[in-house]
Specification:
It is a single chain. By secondary structure, this protein is an alpha/beta fold. It has one domain: 3-Layer(aba) Sandwich (Rossmann fold). It is built from five helices and five strands.
């Protein structure tokens, strides 16, 4: 059975390696959510990030779709029709996006690390309601939660 995997954080170090692993399965199609100003800029940004892996860069526009969006925004920054299409197509989600600045104030980290995760969870729920989500994988680290000492961040 073929899989359509939404990958956030695809332009990062870990996301690039995850993409390489996912594409080893010939039945997998990858949708890479890329922070870019428009749909033309998204594949260019992804190609620059994947410069060291020619097999990945060559897959852009084929088995890899670069989708301009932003996890920190409602509906991942997508227009209603594009979001609905993403819900219909997605079978798996790998959420690897994160702001890893160790010295950044919490206010700078929360949009991507907390709200971004909440937005991906909202998508996962929508996919599951539509046709069932096969798997959601969330990559995180102790440095991205953004809570006060002793406080557990709540995700709506």
């Amino acid at each position: 059975m073929s899989a359509v995997v939404l990958l956030t954080g695809a332009t990062g170090f870990l996301g690039s390696h995850i993409a390489r692993l996912l594409l080893q399965d010939a039945e997998t199609t990858l949708i890479a959510l890329v922070r870019a100003e428009d749909r033309e800029a998204a594949p260019r940004r992804l190609a620059r990030a994947w410069w060291d892996w020619p097999e990945l860069a060559a897959a852009i526009g084929g088995r890899v779709e670069a989708l301009a969006g932003d996890v920190a925004l409602p509906h991942l920054g997508l227009e209603e029709g594009a979001y609905a299409d993403l819900v219909r197509r997605t079978t798996h989600i790998v959420h690897a996006a994160g702001d890893l600045q160790l010295n950044a104030p919490l206010e700078e980290l929360r949009p991507v690390n907390v709200q971004g995760t909440a937005n991906v969870l909202e998508l996962a729920r929508a996919v599951h309601r539509d046709h069932g989500l096969a798997r959601l994988a969330h990559v995180s680290t102790a440095y991205v939660a953004g809570g006060r000492q002793g406080e557990i961040p709540r995700i709506p």
